[in-house]
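Hey, can you fold this?
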Amino acid sequence: MTTATSRTTRPGNRPLWLIDVPVVLVAVVWGSSYLAAKELATTSTVIALLLLRFLVATPVMAVVAGRGITRLSAREIGAGAVLGMLLSGVLVLETFGVVHTSATNAGLIISLTMIFTPLAESVATRTRPTGAFLGAAALSVTGVALLTQGSGFTTPSSGDLLMLLAAVARTVHVMAMSRMKSLRSTDSGALTVVQFLGAIAVFALASPFAAVSPVDVAAAYSPQQWTALLYLALMCTLFAFFVQMWAVRRTSPSRVSLLLGTEPLWAAVIGVAAGGDRPGLLGAAGAVLVLIGTTWGRQAAAPPAAAENGPTEGEPAADGTAPQPAGAAQGAPSA
């Protein structure tokens, strides 16, 4: 018989909230990234900004990863490089999108990842998302719509389309991390370094075609702008993507995506506290719906009790390496 404890713990009696909390913190820092990106990015400096961001983050991540990098196989390096290219696509679309649309529209549209991911996961595993999860996701998206558009809708723009494509790209990136068989037991830190290097390669190749070089952008930045860049590099990049990759292999892509989908809520909170935004009554109602929807969705997306209390080979090793998923029935990768 399933107990309340079994529904909220992983193998080894590890509570799921220990995985959820770092993912929510990622949503918080990503929500705060809109202000930093708005301050730093223009159409001509997007590629330079992203290259600088990853050039700062990668050496720090390499130190954190340590000897794990040298233990990577050629297959793992290749898979990590593919993830890095996907990651670069996500960030290019998101950053150009933020430049060409409002922060409110960006927050609303990127939240559609909450819908795209469980649908993609259901196709990949040939299972149907539960009605409870879809209901929770729909409630969350409705809340995001009220939250981000409480002051009225703006006319759709090219930036809106870019953010829609970014939501699709985010879904592909999350699903790829979850389902790449060669990465099931790979050290998360080492794999993050390879991802970052793959993204750097893409940005470096694109830099000659950009209007402004990274060197010129770096030289023109004020101390305040460098502070914002360091925040984007260390928190919104280094911390965020390491935690995302660590969490998605210890729970389900849908659960991680739903928690990351609270990003617009935190963007609104930070906008009110630091940017002077006023969401109004509709926005406040939307915030409540987001909280209710994500709480409901976390419960709906929790791995089945049988999986949670099953073989311990799905549990992370003591050295921090990723778990070996127990099987597709949990929503874990099967290919």
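Oh, and this one too while you're at it.
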Amino acid sequence: MAGNAGEMLVKLLTAWNEADADARADILNEALGASFIYEDPHAPAPFEGPNGMAEYLTIFRENLPDAMLLPMGSPQVTHGTAIIHARLDRDGTPFARLNFVGSMGEDGLTRVTGFVESE
């Protein structure tokens, strides 16, 4: 696995914007480790593995097809952990601010937690 936690977190954010499910799955397989867990306040429970994240993002894209997740600057990285601030736009209008914290393992991100604030 090439890259650090910050690079993989940025790669994961690109998956949120990918409309094509197969391309989105490819991005997730590059960024996430096999034992990956994702959680945020809008998820009913933590999602496990790249397939769980793919299912969550499919639902996200179906519910918010006009949404774009935009990184706000570069991630901050400390050893195997990174944080990145992002903005979610809907139809070009700021909708929410988000913070994502990710931990890196040998085969990719192992855990990402998203925190959401209203814009």
